[in-house]
Design goal:
This protein is of the alpha+beta class. Among the domains are: 178 residues, Aldehyde Oxidoreductase, domain 4 (2-Layer Sandwich), CATH 3.30.365.10; 219 residues, Aldehyde oxidase/xanthine dehydrogenase, molybdopterin binding domain (Aldehyde Oxidoreductase, domain 4), CATH 3.30.365. Helices cover 25% and strands 24% of the residues. The chain is built from 17 helices and 32 strands. The strands form eight sheets. The chain has a seven-stranded mixed β-sheet, sandwiched between helices. Helix 6 links the parallel strand 10 and strand 11. Helix 8 runs parallel beside helix 16. The relative contact order is 0.14. The structure holds dioxothiomolybdenum(VI) ion. Dioxothiomolybdenum(VI) ion (MOS) binds next to loops. The site of dioxothiomolybdenum(VI) ion has 10 residues, from loops.
Length: 760
């Protein structure tokens, strides 16, 4: 921690009403349920006009002819932008590297080339959205089509199919040899489908045009600063000409980490027309943006007869686009999660004629760990150990991959408490041995792991003479509860009730903050807010002592306590001044402090930090119909200090629901002949409904981590999904005696394999 104040020990914890650690309601809950909270398509400046995007129906080739005459002739149409008349921008000729994926960015309307099905080829701007949409249908486009490749499996079988090897953690030992010599081996190939993010609010940008040429941008973004930097870089604005205001996000899950094409097109149109412009994408168009890539993974494990793991090999191939290499940490977890002397990992990308994949909740881990954990389950059966016993036998107490100690790891407690709550001890090991009438019952489990990240961030704390505290940082709250936890941290720091604190986020005019991603928000923004408040507290303490006629005049800072909106003597609480009086005594309207924090590099060199989870799942499978229902989930999580158990367990629950969905429902289906996602709507792209989700129990085990960061937090946004799909798949095995290596596991797969035949 980049400490601005050293050894400052004013203590508010003895105020007896600490907020951190309590399940406070969302401070933005009222605004959200009343519609007061505004999302990017809900800002309506005067004179707003609307854009509608036409997407390519072909997958690869070029635009031969794009006739805009009919569209332009339609009353109400203001402009049609295509690659032929789009403004010239320097940016088209250099690569913008964004904060999330530091590679070349897709350039909308760059030229006549079509790189993927759904690529934007024209933007119509009209007085209203309906006119713009209708005008889009009047655009006449002729394409020259070229053969495309959108199937990962087919490319893989094709001897000329390209793969691009990417860097992975170095091997240790000799995994191939250890495998060959071990008495017990397993090898399996896992194939996971593409998934789309499908946030509740589709992507939208509203660009407000100001007379002086400046713009205010409302866009779905997980990082207002990152979006501002993109806009400045692409359009040549200076930082003071662009303000990004995105206080609420409406779901993003990674898809808001990168600026998407609606932002570029809306700004381009606003500049050309000198008007405020909104582009709101349709649900169908949400399938023309990023997604979790398709993956084919091969995992080979070997063990001694007693169940000691001696070899782990994990190879993964995922698709990327022809435009850029999108990579994620898919295989690295396999070198970390279990104690094993011999590990080899490989990771490669196959470029396809699709848009570039994008980070999606627990990118890499949701893919790699779910495959590993299915393999671990299979191995446990091979060596004749209970899956939980097998994991405990191979428990890793340090990070062998990086040869470092762990800052903390309470995974054993997750296993113990999760198993206890679930009733794992009552499980009968034999597959197909538990049933209830015509339902096969399966109990499965898996482990989750996610890295604890922290990024540099700044925050400001301002106390006004009415005793109200405002904390502010340019971070986004992507729905995770950031407003609430920052309010709790600030309230505790100055001994205030939550009602005396306002948290401002989602605005690039506030102190600098990084993207909210990788479950880093609590550590990054939380640390910055804490430090800004501590710094303000020091100033307030000084002022409280100095101010004219202060009852605390003879005290020193260390004698003071901040509680109930007052500064008091620790030894005599009756001797106090209110914070409001301290401000008034200063002769100013408010006192302010700002702080910047960064990860502690020394500690990072010494320790690896991961959040862990143990997921236990019960499935019931109708033997005749092959229908799987997940009837119980217990997920025990060790993620350091839990700032707010209520919002944190909401995060874990969301991750679990998605994990169930990954295991059983979500599948973006490509028609490889056309190269398009065919189920591009929420009727055919299956996400779980309430009827698909039953009992979910979240446990946070105590995990005290003095090293990870000043708040002791590891983040909870992603760990909930990691491992959950594998636990479901393992439960399906336990129920049916059949292994399913493809996710999602659908009814037809279960029926085809047969629920009634035990695996040999
Ligand atoms: Mo997350 S995929 O880091 O929003």
């Amino acid at each position: 921690m980049n400490t601005l104040i050293d050894n400052f020990s004013l203590d508010s914890s003895d105020s007896g009403d600490a907020h951190v650690g309590r399940g406070a309601d969302r401070v933005d809950g009222h605004a959200k349920v009343t519609g007061e909270a505004k999302y990017s398509a809900e800002f309506t400046p005067p004179g707003l006009v609307h854009g509608c995007v036409l997407n390519s129906p072909v997958t690869r080739g070029r635009i031969q002819l794009l006739d805009t005459t009919a569209a332009q002739g339609l009353p109400g149409v203001l402009a049609v932008f295509t690659h032929e008349n789009r403004p010239e921008l320097d940016w088209y000729h250099h690569d913008h590297k964004d904060k999330d994926t530091p590679t070349a960015h897709f350039l909308p309307l760059y030229d006549d080339r079509i790189h993927y099905n759904g690529q934007p080829v024209a933007l119509v701007v009209a007085k209203d959205r309906e006119t713009a949409r209708y005008a889009c249908s009047l655009l006449q486009v002729q394409y020259e089509e070229e053969p495309h490749q959108t199937s990962l499996s087919r490319t893989r079988d094709d001897p000329e199919g390209q793969t691009v090897p990417r860097k992975t953690p170095s091997p240790r030992g000799d995994a191939a040899q250890a495998y060959a010599q071990a008495p017990v081996q397993m090898r399996a190939q896992y194939h996971f489908a593409i998934e789309h993010h499908n946030p509740m609010a589709p992507h939208a940008a509203t660009v407000v045009w100001h007379d002086n040429g400046n713009i205010t941008v409302h866009d779905k973004t997980q990082g207002p600063m990152s979006t501002r930097d993109y806009v400045c870089d692409v359009f040549g604005y200076s930082e003071d000409q662009v303000q990004v205001v995105a206080p609420f996000v409406g779901g993003a899950f990674g898809l808001g980490l990168r600026p998407q094409y609606q932002l570029f097109l809306a700004i381009m149109a606003a500049r050309e027309l000198q008007l405020s412009v909104r582009i709101a994408l349709s649900r169908q168009q949400m399938f023309t943006l990023g997604y979790r890539p398709e993956s084919i993974q091969t995992i080979s494990l070997a063990a001694q007869n007693d169940g000691t793991l001696v070899s782990v090999m994990h190879e993964a191939i995922q698709n990327t686009s022809q435009l850029e290499n999108f990579e994620e940490s898919t295989v690295k977890w396999s070198g970390v999660l279990y104690r094993c002397p011999n590990v080899s990992l490989s990771y490669a990308l196959t470029p396809l004629d699709l848009y570039t994949p994008t980070d999606m909740r627990a990118p890499g881990a949701a893919t790699g760990v779910n495959a590993l954990e299915q393999a671990i389950d299979e191995m446990a059966y091979r060596v004749g150990l209970d899956p939980l016993q097998f994991r405990l036998k191979n428990y890793a107490d340090r990070d062998q991959a990086e040869d470092k100690d762990l800052s903390s790891k309470e995974l054993r407690a997750c296993y113990a408490q999760g198993a206890e709550r679930f009733g794992w001890a009552r499980r009968s090991a034999e597959p197909r041995s538990m049933r209830d009438g015509h339902e096969l019952i399966g109990w499965g489990m898996a482990t989750g792991i996610w890295e604890a990240f922290q990024l540099e961030a700044s925050a400001r704390a301002t106390l006004s003479s009415d005793g109200q505290l405002e904390v502010a940082t340019a971070a986004a709250d992507i729905g995770t509860g950031t407003y609430t936890i920052l309010t709790q941290i600030a309230a505790d720091a100055l001994g205030l009730p939550l009602s005396a604190v306002t948290t401002k986020l989602g605005d690039s005019s506030l102190p600098w903050a990084p993207i909210e991603g990788g479950s880093s928000g609590a550590a990054s923004f939380g640390s910055a807010v804490k430090m800004a408040c501590d710094s303000l507290k020091k100033a307030l303490a000084g002022q409280a002592i100095q101010m004219q006629g202060s009852p605390l005049a003879t005290a020193s800072e260390a004698d003071l306590v901040f509680a109930k909106g007052r500064v008091s003597l620790k030894s005599d609480p009756a001797c106090h001044v209110s914070l409001a009086d301290v401000i008034r005594g200063s002769g100013k309207d408010s006192l302010q402090a700002q702080a910047s924090t960064a990860p502690d590099e020394k500690s990072k060199k010494r320790y690896s930090s991961y959040a862990h989870s143990a997921v236990f799942v019960e499935v019931r499978i109708d033997e005749e119909l092959g229908q799987v229902r997940v009837t119980r989930v217990v997920n025990a999580v060790a993620a350091g200090n839990i700032l707010n158990p209520k919002t944190a367990s909401n995060q874990i629950m969301g991750g679990i629901v998605w994990g169930i969905s990954k295991a059983l429902h979500e599948h973006s289906m490509l028609d490889d002949h056309i190269g398009r996602f065919m189920n591009h709507n929420l009727a055919e792209y299956h996400i779980p409904t309430h009827a698909d989700i039953d009992g979910i129990d979240v446990i946070f085990v105590d995990e005290d981590d003095p090293h990870v960061n000043a708040l002791g937090v590891k983040g909870v946004g992603e760990i909930g999904i990691v491992g959950t799909a594998a636990a479901v798949a393992n439960a399906v095995y336990h129920a049916t005696g059949k292994r399913f290596y493809e996710l999602p596991i659908t009814m037809d797969q279960i029926l085809m394999k047969g629920t009634g035949i035990q695996e040999g």
